[in-house]
């Protein structure tokens, strides 16, 4: 990577903004990204997207707000965030695929949690069936006609 060209790093930073921070308060745009960084206008963000390296102060802000590695922000060397695998060596299409997979993973985890809740409810229901049947027997209600414990259907 050319040390003087910030374009590739900016794409990674902007992708993280879109996937992790853009919402109702910070729209998915360079203007929204500028507001997220507390810039008065989007001139700096536009310059970064064209390859201009940010100031040390702006790198510090990106580090503080988004968790990017300062060494990576200042030099382009190392890993973008923490001790994660160095995605800089990957083509941008692979980086985008990683972001998509992380998003899909989050959706699948949410679906799994929902299914676990349903299983728990089903298991609780199964545990209550013997109690209901016992109650019906005591009331002399045939299981097929019982509406609720102690009453016959329709009475």
- Ranges where pLDDT stays below 50 over 5 or more residues in a row are 83-88, 150-155
Q: In which range does the helix fraction lie?
A: 55-70%
How far from one another are the termini?
81 Å
- pLDDT average, as an integer? 80
Tally of separate helices: 6
Tell me the quaternary state: single chain
Assigned CATH class of the largest domain? Mainly Alpha
What count of domains describes the coordinates? 2
- What's the number of extended β-strand segments? 0
Strand content: under 5%
Shape type: rod-shaped
Radius of gyration based on Cα positions: 28 Å
**What's the order of the H and E elements?**
HHHHHH
The SS-based structural class is mainly alpha
Largest sheet: none
| Annotated CATH topology of the largest domain | 434 Repressor (Amino-terminal Domain)
By CATH, the architecture of the largest domain is named Orthogonal Bundle
Structural features:
2 domains, mainly alpha, 6 helices, 61% helix, 434 Repressor (Amino-terminal Domain), disordered C terminus
Write the topology of this structure.
Layout: H1 7-21, H2 30-36, H3 43-49, H4 56-66, H5 70-75, H6 92-139
Brief overview, please?
The protein is mainly α and 155 residues long.
Can you give a write-up of this model?
There is one protein chain. It is built from six helices and no strands. Mean pLDDT is 80; it is low at 83-88 and 150-155. The longest helix is centred in the last third of the chain and has 48 residues, at 92-139. It is mostly helical and 155 residues long. It has two domains: 7-89, 434 Repressor (Amino-terminal Domain); 91-155, no CATH class. Helix 1 (7-21) packs parallel to helix 6 and helix 2 (30-36) crosses helix 3 (43-49). Helices cover 61% and strands 0% of the residues. The radius of gyration is 28 Å and the shape is rod-shaped. The relative contact order is 0.08. The chain has helices at residues 7-21, 30-36, 43-49, 56-66, 70-75, 92-139.
């Amino acid at each position: 990577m050319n040390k003087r060209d910030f374009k590739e790093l900016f794409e990674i930073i902007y992708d993280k903004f879109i996937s992790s921070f853009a919402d109702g308060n910070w729209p998915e745009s360079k203007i929204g990204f500028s507001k997220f960084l507390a810039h008065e206008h989007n001139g700096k963000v536009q310059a970064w997207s064209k390859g201009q390296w940010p100031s040390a102060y702006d790198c510090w802000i990106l580090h503080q707000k988004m968790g990017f590695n300062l060494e990576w922000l200042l030099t382009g060397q190392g890993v973008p965030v923490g001790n994660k695998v160095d995605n800089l060596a990957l083509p941008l299409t692979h980086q985008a695929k990683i972001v998509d997979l992380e998003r899909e993973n989050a959706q699948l985890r949410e679906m799994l949690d929902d299914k676990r809740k349903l299983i728990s409810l089903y298991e609780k229901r199964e545990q209550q069936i013997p109690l209901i049947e016992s109650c019906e027997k005591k009331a002399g209600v045939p299981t097929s006609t019982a509406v609720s414990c102690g009453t016959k259907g329709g009475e």
